[in-house]
Structures are given as C-alpha cells and as structure tokens.
Amino acid sequence: MQIDPSIKSRPTYQAPMLEEPAGLQLFVCQPEARGLLEPLYQQCASAQAQWVLADEETGTEALLASLQQMLVNVPVSTRLYVAGHEGFLWDVRNLALEAGLVDEQIQLAPPVSRGRRLFCTHCYTLMEGVEASPHSCSGCGRLLLVRDHFSRLHGAYVGVQINAEDPSELPEQEVLQ
Amino acid sequence: MRMSPKPVQTFRDDFTYSNSPGAIARFPFPFPEDEYRYSVNIEPHVTPGPEGSVYEFLLDIDEHYLSEMAERDIVLKENPQRCLAMPHMDLACWDMIERCMQSLAADYPQHFSLTIDGDQWTWHNRLLNIHDSFTFGDSSTLPLPPMEYMGRQVQGDFALLDQRDGDLFLDAGIVTCPADWSLAFDAGMSFSEWHGPVPMAHEMGVFDRALKYLTAIPVGRPVRRLNWTLTVNARMDTSPETYPNWGTDRASVTADNVGEKVHLRVELQVLDRMPRSNALMFSIRTYLLSFDDLVTNPDWARRMHRVLKTLPPELVEYKGLGRYHDLAVEWLSRFDPAN
C-alpha cells in the first residue's frame, strides 16, 4: 500500500483574514501559534477583540472548557480565528458548532506543525503529534499506515495496520508531508 | 425463485456459508459490459421488481437471513460501536423503523406482521421470534436503541444520511459487513469526504453528479445501484476494524483454491427518502458468490475474466486485490478461451 496522493477528505488551510463587522472577534490559540493571529488581533478595535489562550499550566483542556462557557453568551455575529496544532483546530471548530456557530464564522489557520492526530481503526485509540508512517499504535501496538483520509469529527487521520496481510513485513518509516 | 431462510451458516472460522442453486440463479451479477468502468450507475428501484429477484421488494430477505443476523450479533457483541446514531438522528431512525416494518410486513407476511393502533405498534418477527409492542417515536419503549433494534432484523448494512446544505452526512448507521470502511471513523462525514479514498472517480466528476442526483430523491421514489469487489473466503465482516483478522486471507489464495476461496462480493445499494426527517436511508445489501459457483454460469465466467483482466491498476490496488489478482485472472481464463 502507498500513501494516497490526493485524498479528498484531507482539509486545506488558508491564512485567516479579518472579517468585519463582527459582534465579537475571538482569537483562540495554543501558545506556540499566537504569532499567526497577532497581526489580525492588532487590526481589531480592542473592545470587540479577545484572546482565548491556552497557557502552559492549564493546557488545552482548560482552554476548551472556558471557550465552551464563553460561547454560551456571545453575540450572533461572533467570529472565531483558531490557530494551533491540527487536532486542536478541529476540536475548537467542533465545540463551536455544538455551541451553535456555523462554519462560515470560523477560520482555521494552517497548523503550526506537521504532527497529526491519528485514529487507530482497530482499537479507536487517538494519538497526537504523529510525524511518520508507519506508527506503532499506543493502544493495540499494531504498526499503522498513516493515511491521508481525515475525519473532521475526530480531527484525525486514519491508521490501518500496514502489514496485516503479511505480518512479517516491516516497512521502513517515512516522514509525513 | 423466492428464498426461504435456511439454518444458520457461518461467515467466519469454518465458513460454512453456501448458496443454493436458487440463490446462485438470483445473484445480482453486476457487470453489464466486459470492461468495468466507473459510472453513475443509479436507477429507480421500482417495486415490485421481477418476481423472486433481489429487486422484487424494497428489502430482500433470502435464504441467508438467519446466518446474517447471527453474524451481526457476533460483530455487535465484539464491538458495540459498529452501530451508532447521533442524537439528531433519532427521528430518522424512527422513519427507518416505519419504512422497514411496513415493507417487511407487506412483502413477507409469512415472516413479519405489524399492527398499528394510533401510536401503539406491535411487531412480530417470526423468523427471530421477536414480538414487541412499543410507542412509535418513543425510543424508551424499545428494548434496544432504534437503529440497533431495526438493524438486527434486516440483512445488509444500513446508514442514515442527514441532508443539509445540499450535502449528505453519515450521521447514523449499523455497519457489520462493510467492504473495508469504518463507520466509527467515517461518522459525520460529508458525501465527498467519506468517498475520499476512492481513486479516480472524484476527478471524473462521479461524486458531484451522484450527489446532485441523490439530494433530489423524493419520498417514495427509491433508487439503487450495484457495487462490487472481491473477498477471500465467505467473510461478511471485512471491516478495517477487523482487518488484522482477515488480512492474511488475501495471502492464502493459490492456483488450486481460487474457486472456493475467492468470492465476488456485490452490494445492492438502495437509497430511499425518509418522510419525517428528510434523511436518506442507505441500505447496502451484500451478496457473496464463490468463483466455483459463479462459473456454473458460462456468461458470468467469461465476463468475470474479462473484467478482472482489464481492471485498471488503481482499482486493483484500491480493492485490495494485489496479492491474488493474477491468480484469479489465470484461473478464470480457462472459461474464456477466446481471450
């Protein structure tokens, strides 16, 4: 098997553009991605622009929890700008959709790393920061081919055992694009 | 020939699954030409179709009913996540229950009956010895969640596609006999996303045209198409989840066992608009036929040879035939001396 060259479920990303007017401009990011959104933030009138940051101590989980709280009471015309690792981008987007926003209100910046979230199709374990294929599943130990087939719901690429047809094959690892 | 369910056979381990002569005769052989090419091969599913054919009714119940329901039970016990329904799909699940129960009771009155008294429904499935009364629309009155309850009583996989923004989303399903796709991973995907891994067809515009057609299907006007692949052994559950269990099957084909090992796997896919939810019910009814049985029909034997021989390499790869494609072509060639 080869890594599929052009799988249509794989998202493409563009640098976010400021959309105005907006009731509230929310800039949501992981610390290492702040630079991607800083220029847009600077363009906003400060009253309607707000950072939602994961800090080193509380981490991403806390950010998502506080964002969820925040989205309960935001203006209808809120816009979201999201930057960080790819899995994080989709976690924020899915959380926003649950809160009643629509995709048109949400812009996802190009991921700050090539690390992928990987979904093991055999045991459903999710792994973060996968940069090479095949990758050993942290759940079931199987050697997974990292495919380009992507789920927005999981924010993840699918991994399928690379040597299920002949377990004696141990293909060399290749860095993912 | 109308088919009566026979005792349980297996789709795993000792693979006792077999087709009677009647089942072979009604097998939906999917190739209209000697070369297989992608097409938007969708046509109206007008019922009743020819008597005794797989197209006679909305849902085909055949001699493998008990075997497939037993197999489904094994898969779901092993992995309950092979069935799922997002909360917003509850109404669509009840649409599906209504459509399936009404069709089954009307088309197979010897096996199924349905009594409706207002919202009090009584369902009797004599094949599985199920006799339940429930309040239509109230999932708490069923012994199982509605998708699983109905899905455990009909052959084939089922998905419910939510239609919004001109697209279709895979938001519910019971998928225990897929041709290598995972409901758990593909859940929530749009039409073009869940077809993402299919080679070539996107570039040919197949999915754009199919989506336009499917989103326009009205209530009461179901459509159908056939899809196919090959499967080694009569294995229903060729899911990615269980690929580690069946991957080595593909390396087990030899020149001597092609006829018994290799099966033509055909999906009769039917799409039917649900009246309350506007979802599409997508049924994927799988038929398996060993090459030994297939070549009892000389026309099929000859055509199968030609189709496999001319199959583009991308499709050989995508369908996972790489390890035994040459062996299968060689074995079939004896039935097609002109080629």
UniProtKB/TrEMBL annotation, chain A:
Signal sequence annotation: none
Positions of the Dimethylamine monooxygenase subunit DmmA-like C-terminal domain: 117-160
Stored Pfam families: DmmA-like_C, DmmA-like_N
Residues covered by the Dimethylamine monooxygenase subunit DmmA-like N-terminal domain: 60-106
Source taxon at top rank: Bacteria
Family matches, as InterPro entries: DmmA-like_C, DmmA-like_N
Protein name: C2H2-type domain-containing protein
Keywords: 2Fe-2S, Flavoprotein, Iron, Iron-sulfur, Metal-binding, Oxidoreductase
Organism: Marinobacterium sediminicola
Keyword Metal-binding: yes
Keyword Iron-sulfur: yes
UniProtKB/TrEMBL annotation, chain B:
InterPro entries, per database record: HODM_asu-like (IPR021848)
Protein name: DUF3445 domain-containing protein
